[in-house]
Input
Amino acid sequence: MTYISYIDPGTGSMLFSLFIGIAAALSFGLRAAFLKLKFIFSGGKATADETANTIPYVIYSDHKRYWNVFRPICDEFEQRQIPLVYYTSSEDDPALSADYQYIKAEFIGEGNKAFAKLNFLKADILLSTTPGLDVYQWKRSPDVKCYVHIPHTVDDLSGYRMFGLDYYDAVACSGDNQIRWIKKVESMRNIKSKDLTVCGSTYLDTMKNRKQSIKNTAKNEKPIILVAPSWGKSGILSKFGVSFIRAVLDTGYEVIIRPHPQTVVSEKSMLDELISAFADNQRLSWNYDNDNFEVLNRSDLLITDFSGIIFDYTMIFDKPLIYADTSFDTLPYDADWSDEKMWSLQMLPKLGFQLSESDFCNMKNRIDEALASSDLQAGRDEVRSDCWANIGNGAKNTVDYLITKRESLLSDKQNQKQGE
Output
């Protein structure tokens, strides 16, 4: 008789973490013993090869869609002729084909394969957009001196899954709103304070430059409505589905739906059903571009929920939005620790008009009202000042910070050796 063993994903994740923990403990224990012996036999003097394999600066990207965050930083390192290693979990990441002399890009696999490499990494500074360090499979390596998080959004980060930033050493923030939230989480959970600095937003700077380089284009004959929600049970597509899409199409306007990338992965059956339900409608198209710039620039109004695209759209393109009332469930997120409403949800009334399910029958009037409004500009300016600092200098400030941080770490280590 043949027996087939099955390990569920949760158990598999736990076993992988256990294996990595045991392997890491053995590896670093043996390494420490070896280095101690070398230190003794060298007469108590540090040998030159102890740090020979340590990489000064590393970027880790878990998906190619974050190239818009990292490219300006890579460009800045290249311009300064400073070596940088770029690890990616996307086999077709644009970094792998970029023409750099000082940037070394490498595909390190997906999931556990990537984490296995990262968990044994030797580096001074590691920069990443990926939350959840030391929470799941991605463990802190004892040979990485400093983990720096750089957000891929300008909201306050309360929408991260719980404990998403707890084990980072530093955060290169885009604005004061992120500083306030991170400090609040540290206080609520009584955890170690991170090194927080406001650098700006690299990807918004790039979008701003692209927008300014575009010549004035003809206005759309009819409004083009972009629907770009988040994913999960609180998202528009999951919660309202067919009835919502039909209401938008009934306006007679052209409609573009841009599902969240995670919807394509985690809610594929739901998405397939929606696509099939409106397969014959010529005014509806589905957008999956890795770069959202063109579709944001082309549309006249955004309908969303709590997605981070809110800030790309309003901060760069200065266009109105309508946000659906989806009764956001904070349970899986850091926001659940606070009695205060999420910053992004507090900002929504300053950026657009709310849409409830009862408004579906009056969708066209609601859209026309938002398109005609002249009262939202002041709100956009207010939000921009809180979430996007140092406009135009995000990459420069980020690289300046990383260099200063590394120099400080190396200086501290040298002083510690001299004091021994």
About this structure: DSSP finds 15 helices and 13 strands in the chain. Residues 73 and 115 are 23 Å apart (CA to CA).
